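ugh ok so i messed up the first submission bc i forgot one of the chains. this is the corrected input, ALL of the components this time, i swear. 596 residues overall. if the numbers dont match what u have on ur side tell me asap before i send this to the collaborators (the ones from the other lab, u know who)
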Amino acid sequence: MTEYFEVHERDGAARLGELRLADPLTTPALADPVVEDAGSLWAAERAIPDGDEATLTVLPHRAFPAGTRDEVRESFRVDHPDVDFPAAAVVDVAGARDVGTDAYLLSDAAGFIGHGEAFRDAIVAAKASLPADAALFLSGVATPRNVATLAAAGVDLVDGTLARAKGLEGRYLTADAAHFLEDLAELPCACPACATPRSEFTRTDCAEHNVNALQAELRRVRERIRAGRLRDYLEGQARHEGWLTATLREFDDQWGYLEERTPILRDAEITAASAETLDRVEIKRFADRVTTRYRNRFSEQPLVLVPCSATKPYSDSQSHRQFHDAIEWRGHTVSMTSPIGVVPQELETTYPAQHYDAVVTGDWSEEEIGFVAEVLRRYLTRNDGYSRVIAHVPEDGYREICERVEADPAIDVPFEYTCVDHPTTDESLGELNAALGGEPAYSKREREHNTVRAIADYLIGDGAGDELFGSIRTTGRYPKLQVRTDDATGGRDGEPGEQLATMVPQYGTLSFTLAGARRWVESDAPTKQVAIDGFVPRGSVLAPGILDADGTIRVGDEVVIEGPKAFAVGRAEMSGPEMATSTRGVAVEVRHVEER
Ligand SMILES: [Zn+2]
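and heres the new structure output, hopefully the right one now
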């Protein structure tokens, strides 16, 4: 049970936490373990009162013989009647296990820093063995250049020992380089140490600068985590050192570790600035869910492929209004886009479909063409009921993608191309309109119902849309739809039925009511359930009150909360595995609750 560390925000595996010292420390942060003499791990932050009553069980990890490697070597713990200190256990990766302390210092960090695969394996293994709500501490390895990567992997605490030592050796560190001090004509920094004139700048000043630079980079990292945008930064930052670039890719290959820790929705925009954007969890997850959970329900209409627009959601853009006027509800519109892949019209508001910004448009790389073609191929393999595909796409990457998929022997639906030059010219739009001649139009009601079902598929799983919302009414105006039962049980005669859920336009998700939650629990769709103790939650459910949580729950998911005294519905603030192993923090924000 940790007492002094609590995670407040998450951005993938990176966390913004609070270490409750005399002056609370927001992590990821620098926390020098002053282990020489009788200082404690946290001695730099908080002095021990005079007198010798304090029993300091403090041993530097370096002091331990190699033969004890499989053991938890020692915990930094202070036993004193007037002082409460957090405790940290020094462990190596192989010996990492929960011993009930606030922080875990990995003693073998120096051995895996500098190697992408070894670093990833060590962090993933250590995190799997340690409680989710304890701080992970790497000592003697942080530099201004690597600390963003360390934080992104899930490291909460680092120290300044390496930065200081490098400075004393004459290495001047910045977020993008490690210079030889004597090579620098000017100091590219404005910290207090660097205010010293260049000619008088010593190695001691250099050591001080290095620690300042590390602190500044940690501030940047914390701000990025607050904004949910550490990844965007990392895609650029990781290029400054080979092993950091390798680490980014190694973690992307380890889908499960980052996926479990990545929210299913958030406000932050994704900036598609590099090839690595295609490997982000949010992008891969959307493509995965569209091709394994989503199912097209417009069975009579052809598929109309159109290019994406810069304006989001797409249907608000000038070009998509023009497509819409030509299609007149006679085709199922799916937008093609990099880096998302394909976006069926029902999911145009669903995160991250309206939360990304492509820096380069109209200029497709081979990776982008390959990625979008693969998603489209998988989409058509699953949704194989279309009579034909009308590709209303311009001549560049879009056309090449369509031709590649059309040529795939496993795809037997015929493709037609209606774009003469540019997709929005009168001639092109006329061709599109003519190609749809004779096709039946679907109703607004059908579109709204299918939107709700598609979002349920996406959120909950294959078939969930039909299980939960096979028979519904919708009220309100798209995209602020309200989902109701298709009878008058909840209202008087002639009025819409009981409300089950509301569509949330900014994330393209659903918020369930208690009636919706009950219908969900009673259905055959997979439920995201949180089992709680015998209390009635008000406002939020804290981690200690949770008995069990479904392992598939991700931050942002709708969850049903059940206990002996309450039935409730809310939104997850932690992943299921984190709920099950945490002893602190808000696990679920409760929306509706009912006493039992
Ligand atoms: Zn400086």
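quick check: The first strand starts at residue 5 and ends at 11. that seems consistent at least. The chain is about 30% helix and 20% strand.
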